[in-house]
Amino acid sequence: MTVRVLLVDDQPLLRTGFKLILEAESDLTVVGEAGDGATAVELTRTMLPDVVLMDIRMPGMDGIEATRRIVREGAAAHDPRVLILTTFDLDEYVIEAVRAGASGFLLKDAPPEDLVSAIRIVAAGDAIVAPSVTRRLLDKFASRLPSMRQTPPPPGLETLTEREREVLKHVARGLSNAEIARELVVSETTVKTHVGNVLAKLGLRDRVQAVVYAYETGMSRPGQND
């Protein structure tokens, strides 16, 4: 199956570079390009991409609002995933993009193979939670974002079993299923089942939202490693 990708960035040279990388892969194709959020929303409606590679800071409608609209308008037959591209100096925007429904984020200076892999993973319905980046971002900005301080914790925590809470804490640390399995001395399949149960019970879209949920509920805090 070919993954249809929409490129969204206000820098034409960057879009050209991304396009060259992606179209060198037999299973990826670029169906459109946009230089601002409003155009991205419109092209998502008409071009029906599987993955929207989204910049955050753009003229007019930014990537956060565009992500929010794309996710909100997504239907069962066409549920596009948004992969955010960011740089360290824009990290504070990433949390809001995730809250808007993005399925993950990637640094703009990531190697080409990481970009290709991230798009495939997101297209398959999973999420990108890079441990080294996720923890650094959340630790740095969780206490500074007004929305994360003022929004009441979402309900549902009491529905989780003791093991499911434990798994959620490990997810919030950025651990993969394999790493969690080693920590808990269980099979990777068992961990995958627990993660699925956590997402279903809490009404979360993916692991990225699970990380944010853990911070909102106080299960994980900036600087906490265990």
Topology at a glance:
Elements: E1 3-8, H1 12-22, E2 28-34, H2 37-47, E3 51-55, H3 63-73, E4 81-86, H4 91-99, E5 104-107, H5 112-123, H6 131-141, H7 146-150, H8 162-172, H9 177-184, H10 188-202, H11 207-216
Question: In words, what does this structure look like?
Answer:
The chain has 226 residues and is an alpha/beta fold. It has two domains: 3-128, Rossmann fold (3-Layer(aba) Sandwich), CATH 3.40.50; 146-216, Arc Repressor Mutant, subunit A (Orthogonal Bundle). 50% of the residues lie in helices and 12% in strands. It contains eleven helices and five strands, in the order E-H-E-H-E-H-E-H-E-H-H-H-H-H-H-H. The protein has helices at residues 12-22, 37-47, 63-73, 91-99, 112-123, 131-141, 146-150, 162-172, 177-184, 188-202, 207-216; strands spanning 3-8, 28-34, 51-55, 81-86, 104-107. The chain has a five-stranded parallel β-sheet, with helices on both faces. Helix 2 runs parallel beside helix 3. The longest helix has 15 residues, at 188-202. It is globular, with a radius of gyration of 17 Å.
Task: Name some characteristics of this structure.
226 residues; alpha/beta; Rossmann fold; Arc Repressor Mutant, subunit A; 2 domains
Strand order of the largest sheet: 2-1-3-4-5
What is CATH's topology name of the largest domain? Rossmann fold
Number of helices: 11
CATH architecture of the largest domain, by name, is 3-Layer(aba) Sandwich
**Order of SSEs:** EHEHEHEHEHHHHHHH
Strand content: 5-15%
Distance between the termini: 40 Å
Secondary structure category: alpha/beta
What is the domain tally?
A: 2
Radius of gyration, in Å, reads 17 Å
Mean pLDDT: 82
Helix content: 40-55%
What is the overall shape? Answer: globular
Major beta-sheet overview = 5 strands, parallel
CATH superfamily of the largest domain: Response regulator
Uncertain ranges: 145-151
Number of strands: 5
CATH class of the largest domain: Alpha Beta
